[in-house]
Amino acid sequence: MAEVLEAGVLLRKLHREVTRADGCGISLHVMESQIFENAASPENDYASPIYAAGLEIIPDQRIALASGTPLKLTPREFHVLLVLAQNSGRVTSREELYSKVWRRGYERRDRSVDVYVGRVRSKLASALPERNFIHTHTGIGYRFSPTGD
C-alpha cells in the first residue's frame, strides 16, 4: 500500500509538470485515478471469502462470483459490494460507505453512493434474479442481506 501511495505522489508531480509543459496530461490523469482507486481498497484486503446465497466475494483477488460466474464489476463497484457484505445484516450509512470506498469526506448532495449501489444491485439482479442482496433504508443507508423475492 505504501508503495502505491508513493507511486501516486510521484505520478501527481509528473502530471503537474506535463500539464504545465504542454497542456496535455489527460492520460496521466486517468492513470492517476486508477492508481488511487486501487489503493483505496477496504482495510481488510486479505479477508476470507464471503459466501451468501450463490454469491462469493473473494477480497484478495478482488472478484465476485455469482453461481461461479465472475461479475463484471469496476474496482469501485467491487469495493461497494465488499464493504456492504463485510457488514452483512447491519445498515451501513451512506457516509460510512463513502468514507470507506472513496476515502474522503461525504457531502450530502453527492449521489455517488446511490449511483454505485444501484449499479451493483442491477448487476447482482441480472446474475442472481431470485435474490435481493442490497436493501435500502431510506434516509439512512443500505443493508446487505440476501433474501428471496
> What is the helix tally?
5
Question: Number of DSSP strands?
Answer: 7
Radius of gyration over all CA atoms, rounded:
17 Å
Question: Could you state the order of secondary-structure elements as H and E?
Answer: HHEEEEHEHHEE
Query: Shape from CA axes?
Result: globular
Please explain how this structure is put together.
The model is unreliable at 1-5, 18-22 and 24-42 (pLDDT under 50). Helix 1 (2-22) runs antiparallel to helix 2 and helix 3 (75-86) packs across helix 5 (112-127). This protein is α+β, with helices and mostly antiparallel strands and 149 residues long. It has five helices and seven strands. Strand 6 (131-137) and strand 7 form a beta hairpin. The protein has helices spanning 2-22, 26-39, 75-86, 94-101, 112-127; strands at residues 50-52, 55-58, 63-66, 69-70, 91-93, 131-137, 141-148. Strands 1-2-3-4 form a four-stranded antiparallel sheet, with helices on one face. The protein has a three-stranded antiparallel sheet with strand order 5-7-6.
Features:
three-stranded antiparallel sheet, disordered N terminus, 7 strands, four-stranded antiparallel sheet, alpha+beta
Quick gist of this model?
With 149 residues, this protein is α+β, with helices and mostly antiparallel strands. 48% of the residues lie in helices and 21% in strands. The longest helix is centred in the first third of the chain and has 21 residues, at 2-22.
